[in-house]
Amino acid sequence: MMEEHKNELTGSFALNALGDSERDEVLQQAEASEAVRDEIDALQETAALLGLSAEPVEPPARVKANIMAAIRNTPQLPPVQTEAGEPAEPVAETPPAEPAAEGAPGNPPSQSHEPTATAPAAGKTSQRMFALAAGVLLIASGVLTGVVVNQNAQQERLEQQLSALNDKQAELTKILTATDVKSKTQRMDDGARVTLAYSAAEGMMAVTTEGLPTLPSDKGYELWLISDTGAVSAGMVDGTNTDGMVMVSGPMEGVTHFGITVEPATGSPAPTTEPIMVQAL
């Protein structure tokens, strides 16, 4: 009973899902037991590698380049003009001058002037501004159309990857919080490492691979669940992209070992080569 409780706590510890008292209990067990420390390290590594198992998505560089090019190549609107043709500037207020007597020195008799015809000039300025604005909108709409199409495709791929990552995270959480969770790590002679976190009760296993040699495109690493009745395929690891995590699900009653062989990229119904690793469960 104590073993099950310890396993349950170490899985939750790896997910940072414990309160202070339970966390202290696990840390005390880890200080007293090397096996507990190894189990915690393996489970934490498995949980951390979940985030690395999804390919990062970056917005295409052309999005920024297209927008900056549109700004650089689009004619800018001219400064707003006053009726006199000068740029509008704030004018300081001055007290009104006292009206001078008509005929006084320096003040010729008042004369009647017709209003200056400014309406046509203002109309031409408005037309030019509207034309420039229309040109800006036309160029911007073309650029933004391309940006939107590219962003929609990127968004769709990102949503698919996030959905797959969420599914994988839910499965991993199920494994690590199972009462019978176990973890095994095997390092091979060439430095490659394979970590297993599994629960027979849940019928699930997370297989994390790191440093496996790259294979030709027509080859892959096939995973096997081995029992007294033989080996059952548990999935493939891409031979050209060997670092990552594979989730395995299915009945695990009677399974005693886990193995990996090199097979055709499409997989084999049974092992055809000597296993590169076999791990007792």
TrEMBL record:
Q: Where is the composition biased (Low complexity)?
A: 83-105
Residues that span the membrane, as ranges: 129-149
Pfam families in the cross-refs: RskA_C
For membrane topology, the record states: Single-pass membrane protein
- Ranges where the Anti-sigma K factor RskA C-terminal domain occurs: 130-276
Record flagged with keyword Coiled coil: yes
The record's listing under InterPro entries reads: Anti-sigma-K/W_factor, Anti_sigma_zinc_sf, RskA_C
Q: Has keyword Transcription?
A: yes
Segments for region (Disordered): 76-123
What protein name applies here? Answer: Regulator of SigK
Q: What organism is recorded for this protein?
A: Paeniglutamicibacter kerguelensis
